[in-house]
Amino acid sequence: MMNKTEKILILDFGSQTTALIGRRIREFGVYTEIIAGDAPLTEAVLTGVKGVILSGSPESAYGEGIAPDKRIYECGLPLFGICYGLQRMTTDLGGLVEPLPKMEYGGVEVEIKTGGQKAEHSQFLAAFDEAIPLNQILESGDAGGAEETRAYEPPLHAPLRFTAWMSHGDTLTRLASGFVQVGTSASGFPAVALHQEKPWVGVQFHPEVSHCERGSEILAAFVFSMCRCKREWTMEQYVEEARAELSARAGDNPVLLLISGGVDSTVVGALLLKSLPIEQVHLMYIDTGLMRKNETQCVKKALEKLGAKNLRVINAETEFLAALKGEEEPEAKRKIIGDLFITIQEREVASLGLPESYFLAQGTLYTDLIESGKGVGKKAHLIKSHHNVGSPLVDAKRKAGKIIEPLDRLYKDEARALGRLLGVDEDVVARHPFPGPGLAVRILGEVTKEKCDILREADAIFIDELKRRRAPDGTGSLYDEVWQAFAVLLPVRSVGVAGDSRKYGWTLALRAIVSSDGMTADVYRFPMKDLLEIAGMITNSVKEIGRVTYDISSKPPATIEWE
What we know:
By secondary structure, the protein is an alpha/beta fold. The protein folds into three domains: 7-226, Class I glutamine amidotransferase (GATase) domain (Rossmann fold), CATH 3.40.50.880; 235-429, Rossmann fold; 442-550, GMP Synthetase, Chain A, domain 3 (2-Layer Sandwich). It is built from 18 helices and 18 strands. It has a nine-stranded mixed beta sheet with strand order 2-1-3-4-9-8-7-5-6, with helices on both faces. It has a five-stranded parallel beta sheet with strand order 12-11-10-13-14, with helices on both faces. Helix 5 runs parallel beside helix 6 (215-226), helix 7 crosses helix 14 and helix 10 (317-324) packs antiparallel against helix 11. It is globular and about 75 Å long.
């Protein structure tokens, strides 16, 4: 999207966390660009590139996994292979990769042996030393990279040890010529390798995920100590260049945005309204009947405050509930909703009299594309389809080149930061994520109006109480501490007691997680007093619910949403 004079290039081989690598580096103030793992490395592509990262992949390097353009090994740039990326380098350069007898997954201790390396390699290995803070590594970026790098002197108590985050079933059984092993996992397999002469390094774990100790330091050491990057990229620049690109792409054509009411589509709406003449921007909000309590009123107020003039609110509850009648399978529900969204949109657009040249804008985030198996390299595995990236009608629009997705390389927290810069109200920007299919994927099994009404009331109580109650440290609300919270209506009834009568009510699950990007998530450790009181308020206020449970699953292995 952006044309920066200096950047880190990331080759995407289909990892679920490829864009997370880019996000971490952007946080350092360095621009990143992600391209397909097998894309031709032309002179234009490599212009301004200071280093290349080879991402992970769900494939095997010795199987059908894609390989990079061989010019990568001739371009003279620093290379950093992450998991599959290192295995790919090993295979391409004459080494051997074979299956592990037992998969290495999760937190695994790694031992690093330092000393005797070239200056740039020793500075990279310095990132594994807990005595060296991240700020110390970032300072070299403020200075534009040191002209001369003094070799890192390892501590007397070497080797270094830290806990890495692994997820692979293959290992390096023979290193490629010129490579040496400097890191070993607790299982005895290679974990870190580097080339003795060239600026090439690789790791058999994922430094980009938050669970990896020294992960940020390792990425920063590559970017600043090896690639000599400067800290020049900001979200303000992203806004400026995104606005310019939107104006150029849309021209004089109308742009229609389907507003869901969540953070993502609202931020896209603000960006469109700041980039194009207001009369050119058409906002359409489809009330599916699957929205949260008072959603429509809140959406209308927020958009009008942003200056929207062409705002159309459509009540389509009857159509969506009729289309979903009898359907219980999650993927089928998502497809039904996605197709109907576009069908209704096209019908309503026809009544607006817009020309065929109109563009459809969406608030698609990179996590939506990745989970739908549509990563940059097209090799990501399908986790679940999203209504705005997976339906046949949306695919047709995409192939026609009529879709604008200005957030498709951003994560949720970056979308929030963008919204703040654009003047979106904080209560909207800070709102927890809400799935495009709405309550349909939070009602397990068949979706009915009765179930939607029950879940709406229960969810509103849960969220309102999180906003009202103070966090344990007193610095904010429980809502602020949680990355995402919601209620799920289960297709299970259980026996209970209401007064002196026997009650047969629905079971409700509460979900609250903490995360930085949505790619990994941990359960929020609720103060028990608050959890018990909220559960009691729900069963006392929503008579159809007889039992409340709390979901304690992390991601992985679970996803954040239940469907």
